[in-house]
Amino acid sequence: MAKLILQIFSISVLYSLVAFPATGEEDHIFGKSINDKSMRLKREKLSHFRFYWHDVLSGSKPTSMIIIPPPRNTTTGFGQMNMIDNALTLGPELSSKIVGRAQGFYAAASLNDVGLMMVMNFAFIEGKYNGSTFTILGRNPVFEKVREMAVIGGSGLFRFARGYVQASTHSLDFKTGDATVQYDAYVLHY
Ligand SMILES: *[C@@H]1O[C@H](CO)[C@@H](O)[C@H](O)[C@H]1NC(C)=O
Ligand SMILES: *[C@@H]1O[C@H](CO)[C@@H](O)[C@H](O)[C@H]1NC(C)=O
């Protein structure tokens, strides 16, 4: 028994020498709790944002492109995937002031209706929010009047963000697929 323990000990000593050859690995700390005061966080607040999301598939400068066509001929387009870099504007017109861009993708993830899975970073350029982002992940049944999706995090002024968005279609061109959608975002952040 003692011999076995000694053997295991010497193997593990040998292994640790091989795995961490004299780099002083013990000096590095992977995780520890810190005082939240050291982060200088302000009071958490709730903000509301309204802007319009433009999914432009037509014309010479589309911002939404099919990157994976539906693998089967279905009425719901199951499996289709679009990559987007869509303008977010203050008013419903595409020519209105741009406050940010929606970058990410959406995919037809519902077999029996048109239900998209949305994965987007909203990257803002407006005022003090310039450079800050928050991230949307959620289910978007596009023919429902109001669709709710989660805000799951963010960066800059939106660190620790959580909340939700409500999306409602402002206009939709069935011929081209171009759509303008009003987004109301309710975000808790510091
Ligand atoms: C897809 O299915 C529809 C309805 O069954 C049919 O009219 C159409 O030709 C099909 N398209 C392709 C590309 O198979
Ligand atoms: C946003 O910030 C970038 C980088 O600091 C700057 O170049 C740009 O002019 C700013 N945009 C606006 C609209 O303020």
Automatic annotation (TrEMBL):
GO cellular component: apoplast
Keyword Secreted: yes
Signal peptide segment: 1-24
Major localization listed first in the record, in broad terms: secreted
Keywords from the named record: Apoplast, Secreted, Signal
InterPro entries: Allene_oxi_cyc_Dirigent (IPR044859), Dirigent (IPR004265)
Pfam assignment, any one: Dirigent
GO biological process: phenylpropanoid biosynthetic process
Highest taxon listed in the record's lineage: Eukaryota
Subcellular localization, as worded in the UniProt entry: Secreted, Extracellular space, Apoplast
Regions that span the bilayer: none
Record bears the keyword Secreted: yes
Gene3D superfamilies per UniProt: Allene oxide cyclase-like (2.40.480.10)
Family: Belongs to the plant dirigent protein family.
Assembly mode: Homodimer.
Function: Dirigent proteins impart stereoselectivity on the phenoxy radical-coupling reaction, yielding optically active lignans from two molecules of coniferyl alcohol in the biosynthesis of lignans, flavonolignans, and alkaloids and thus plays a central role in plant secondary metabolism.
Annotated protein name in UniProt: Dirigent protein
